[in-house]
């Protein structure tokens, strides 16, 4: 039964109003990228009287921006791929073979998922110092590997919904554990892999804490650190800061627009048995 027209109209008005409130900060940032510092101070919320593109020209003429983009792309791509591989293989092993040892290991992983990452930064830093991975992009990838626990829990729940008759039939045909995983399980869990991959990509790309703690060299900064670097100690060119922020957000906005359907499909498919 459809809701009354007045109720749907009221819901639309409420949702549009909430969307406008959410969009105000984005509008504020984007509109001020086309202003000079003086114009922004004079009228921060009004459209620019004269569109100024000098901020974008200066940002894209800075080689540090392209270097930080390359660093972020390397760290994000490698981290997410490794997270998905480790998480998927761990989930497959846990589901396929139930034992007291696996139950214990699952509890340990759950504990690691619950403990706040901020509380472990000091021991992790000392560990990376021992392996000479501090101030290294590969060391940053190692740190992000902790996100494989999140992948493991989501993928494990999805694997439990698979039709195990197919897996049993493959076992009867003589397929090994790795063959079953590679040829049967992996194609079937593609929806949840896309979903988890989108979540983890946005997390790694936008993360500020780990690069701040573990990266110190200017040539190894990620794009988020480059945005933070645009804030000066005494005076800040806020239009330039906002321009760098927008440039850093553009890849993730495009990425999310083209992958949002995979998030919905993966979550919905995982909630239906078989």
UniProtKB/TrEMBL annotation:
<keyword id="KW-0472">Membrane</keyword>
<dbReference type="GO" id="GO:0005886">
    <property type="term" value="C:plasma membrane"/>
</dbReference>
<feature type="transmembrane region" description="Helical">
    <location>
        <begin position="73"/>
        <end position="95"/>
    </location>
</feature>
<feature type="domain" description="ABC transmembrane type-1">
    <location>
        <begin position="69"/>
        <end position="259"/>
    </location>
</feature>
<keyword id="KW-1133">Transmembrane helix</keyword>
<feature type="transmembrane region" description="Helical">
    <location>
        <begin position="137"/>
        <end position="159"/>
    </location>
</feature>
<feature type="transmembrane region" description="Helical">
    <location>
        <begin position="9"/>
        <end position="30"/>
    </location>
</feature>
<keyword id="KW-0813">Transport</keyword>
<keyword id="KW-0812">Transmembrane</keyword>
<feature type="transmembrane region" description="Helical">
    <location>
        <begin position="102"/>
        <end position="125"/>
    </location>
</feature>
<comment type="similarity">
    <text>Belongs to the binding-protein-dependent transport system permease family.</text>
</comment>
<protein>
    <submittedName>
        <fullName>Raffinose/stachyose/melibiose transport system permease protein</fullName>
    </submittedName>
</protein>
<dbReference type="InterPro" id="IPR035906">
    <property type="entry name" value="MetI-like_sf"/>
</dbReference>
<dbReference type="InterPro" id="IPR000515">
    <property type="entry name" value="MetI-like"/>
</dbReference>
<dbReference type="Pfam" id="PF00528">
    <property type="entry name" value="BPD_transp_1"/>
</dbReference>
<keyword id="KW-1003">Cell membrane</keyword>
<feature type="transmembrane region" description="Helical">
    <location>
        <begin position="238"/>
        <end position="258"/>
    </location>
</feature>
<feature type="transmembrane region" description="Helical">
    <location>
        <begin position="180"/>
        <end position="205"/>
    </location>
</feature>
<dbReference type="GO" id="GO:0055085">
    <property type="term" value="P:transmembrane transport"/>
</dbReference>
